[in-house]
Amino acid sequence: MTSLTSVKLCFLPCLMLLYVSSPNWVAFASATSTTDTEAKALLKWKASLFQNQALKKLNWYPPTHNTTTNSSSSNQKPRTSPCTWTGVSCNAAGSVSMIVLSTCGIQGTLHAFSFMSFPNLEYLDLGLNKLFDVIPPQISNLSKLYYLDLSTNQLSGRIPPEISLLRNLTFLGLYENTFFGDIPNEIGNLKSLVGLYLFKNQLNGSIPRSLGDLTSLTHLYLYNNPLSGSIPEEIGNLKSLVILDLSANNLSGLIPPQISYLSTLHYLDLSQNQLSGRIPPEISLLKNLTKLILSKNTLFGDIPSEIGNMKSLVGLYLYNNQLNGSIPRSLGELTSLTTLYLYGNQPSGTIPNEIGNMKSLVDLDLSQNQLSGIIHASFGNLTNLEFLMLRDNQLSGSIPEEIENLKKLAQLQLEINQFSGYLPRNICQSGKLTNFSASTNNFSGPIPKTLKTCTSLFRVHLQRNQLTGNISEDFGVYPNLDFIDVSHNNLYGEVSNNWGQCAQLKTLRLAGNNLTGSIPAEIGNATQIHELDLSSNHLAGTIPKEFGRLSSLVKLMLNGNQISGRIPSEFGSLLDLEYIDLSTNKLNESIPSIVGDLFRLHYLNLSNNELVQAIPLELQKLVQLTDLDLSHNSLGGMIPSEMSSMQSLLTLNLSHNNLSGFIPTNFQDMRGLLYIDVSYNQLEGPLPNNSAFREAPPEALKGNNGLCGKVGALLPPCNEHGSKKHQKRVFGITFSLLAVFVLLSAFFTIVFIVQRRKKHKDKDENHKHEEISFSVLNFDGKSMYEEIIRATEDFDSTHCIGKGGHGSVYRANLSSANVVAVKKLHILQNDQKNLQKEFLNEIRALSEIRHRNIVKLYGFCSHRRHSFLVYEYFERGSLASLLGKDDKAKELGWSKRVNIVKGVAHALSYMHHDCLPPIVHRDISSNNILLDSEYEACVSDFGTAKFLNPDSTNWTAAAGTYGYMAPELAYTMEVTEKCDVYSFGVVTLEIIMGRHPGDVFSSLSSGASSSSSSASPTPEMPILDVLDQRISPLTKREAEEVVSLVKIAFASLNPSPQCRPTMKKVSQLLSSTQRLHLSEPLHMTTFSELLALDGFTT
């Protein structure tokens, strides 16, 4: 795709020449009348535009008098000549012939522009403004127009076919607007057209065959539209064409061989479509072609050897197709080629030795193929090479010494191959190397000495090899280094103090080596570090208190060493920590209470240490923690009941400690808990009524003498289990009697209160509250109530499938064979008003809306004993439960996840924009998104929903789930649709990452620097690093869809509500075929590159 600047520069000289060489116009009798008409027409149009600052700069107003000298001053009359106005030029007769108002910032429509008032207008440029709405068909009145530029505005609608009446038109620029519909077939009548620029719109349909009639056309730009169908054969008639760009559409079928007729073509881009078949060998007849871009299609077969005849080629881009066979040796004849991208295909065989003849090459990428064999010494001839990417192939052998001749090399990627031998010793002798990747090979020997002084380094991947040597001496100080991983090698020595002087270092991985000594305190000076992994070494000593200065630290792994002493209290300042693994060391003393302040933690592993004393109560504050492992220590005391507030917890391992007493009964409320291990402690009493305990394997419970419950044959039932001590029997009997007494007292108290209240209600009111219900399942109110009570065994806990703050959800199998979900509200006297409000709110919301992605309400019942709602049952449960289980999450492939996001977006768009009044859910979270058997998403739980009053501000108490609530709710009680948009952004990232992202990603969405949000992912972190690793790798199309979702999520997480998109806009984007175009493979695309991408492709 060529730039906008080149588009303008290409045509202005020739078109201005046409304008200057036009004959002088003969003045006609009504010249003054025409001038007045033109002036009035311009002033009328100006008056219709938005009155902004830009408009004030337009010097459009009639002079107070004329300056004609052959008439007396008494005869001078005011006249309105626009010839001296800003952006307006006239011909010799004083009639407007040119209007150039590009980049003036004017805002408005063209409806008030009187086209018929400008009979002599030849040149009209209104590009780079804020014009909107449609192009009026009256534009056809500009019969003398040869240049029309309305680009980079906000114009919409269809391109009017009347535009084809402008028979003198040579330049038509309508790009970067939102035009939709077909390209008018009538455009083929513009025989004088030289440049046609329609890119970056929403044009669909097929490319009209009539374009083949534009035989004067030199530039045709149709990229970034959802055009479909095949490329018409008539395109071969455009013999004058120099640039043809049809990229980023939905074009399919074969590349027509007639394209070879375009003998003057210099630039051909057909990338990012769905073209199939083979590359036609006739394409080699385009002898003047300098750039050939066919990437991101589904082309297959061999790369034609005839391409070697295209001597003028400078760039050849065939990446991300299904090309196979071998790389043709004839490519070596393309001696002018500077860029060769063949990655992401299926070619096999060896890299031809002739590649060494391409001495102009600057950028060579053969990665992600099935190439085998060695790298030839001829690569040393490519002395202009700056980027060499050979990753992810089956290449073997050693790296030839000649590779050291590449003095300009900035990036060298050799990872995921079968290379052996030494790394190139002088790989950075020129000091220009920034990215060096050689991981996952069989390299041995020392780290190249030139790397120690290679201060240009930015990213280094040398992990998973057999490298040896003293790491203390191999690395120096790198002012630009962002990432280094030398883990899982055979390196020895100590952790160098130099790492603390790498001011930009964000990731340091030295795991799985033979490092000894202590961790140097100087590491604390590397304050930008986000990830520090020193695990699986032989490090000793204590954790330096200077770690407290690593304020950007997100992930810390020191496990598998011999570190002793206490966990430093300075950890309390590391508020961005999300992941801590200190397991398998010799840490002692107690777990410091400050760990509870690390509220962003989602993983904490302190197992296999020598920690003592009780589990600190402060752990209850870790509400985002999903994995907690404190096993194999010497912790004592009771398990704190406060831990039940850790509702995000999925796995909990407390085994092999000295814990005693009962397991807290309120652990049954931890519905997200999937795995529990409390073996080898001194615990007693019943297991909590929770699936994690009920389904626990025997080995997770054994080693305790007093536990009881129904778990296989391991534990005795609690009703048969008793202590051998008489005191416990007495206590049990006493407790039972006391419980009976309390229950009887409560019963009579309730009866008394109910009877007393009845006396103060009239019969009608009593009847109203006795039972209110409706049904869509052919039940009357009474039958519905009795059926629900029977199906749930009077709401027995065995039928409970979920529990929330205001109610529990039960599964009910009705006699009609229907399965429904029943939400029963808790009865809390001190919150009865709020409870009734929640109940009525959900009824109102669900009874007034109908949408395939919103849960269906079947009925409701308000009874003196129970209040409940009956709605559609979703057999796959909530999104949160699926993401929390590895086996279930693996079933959620990328396409299913994309569809889930779309479903939620469509539901919210409907609520915000199609309901009157609009409805704000206020509690969008993964727990409130349910999935049916086909993984179709439905939004549920409308208890906190709010109906917006469009005529006033909407203030309310805060509602929602922590971690999903919009940040503005911390300082304002005003509820808007943008609160749901923020929650949608969180859920979208959670779906993509497979876990809750935390609130740190919002800083990236606003473009914040790492200093302002140190816990956010680093701008240079590859996006691939945060995607859910449990499912299969993304296809090309899935990658673009997922990255598009990430982009939308970041926009939704903007801290400023006004800057978030509407759900209608999000829904439209997801419904269209638009997606982000990645200029690099996903594994090379970083967050900063994603945020810099502007707009979507199709």
Summary of the model, kept short:
Helices cover 18% and strands 19% of the residues. With 1098 residues, it is α/β, with parallel strands linked by helices.
Q: What characteristics describe this protein?
A:
single chain; Leucine-rich repeat, LRR (right-handed beta-alpha superhelix); 1098 residues; alpha/beta; 61 strands; eight-stranded parallel β-sheet; globular; 17 helices; serine/threonine-protein kinase; disordered N terminus; 26-stranded mixed β-sheet
N/C terminus separation: 14 Å
Contiguous low-pLDDT stretches (5 residues minimum) are 3-30, 64-79, 720-737, 756-779, 949-958, 1002-1016
CATH superfamily of one domain: Transferase(Phosphotransferase) domain 1
**Beta strand count:** 61
Mean pLDDT: 84
Which percent range fits the helix content? 10-25%
Helical region count?
Answer: 17
Rg computed from alpha carbons, rounded to a whole number of angstroms: 36 Å
CATH topology grouping of one domain: Transferase(Phosphotransferase), domain 1
- Beta-strand level of the residues, as a percent range? 15-25%
CATH architecture call of one domain? Orthogonal Bundle
Global outline: globular
Structural class: alpha/beta
CATH top-level class of one domain? Mainly Alpha
Largest sheet: 26 strands, mixed
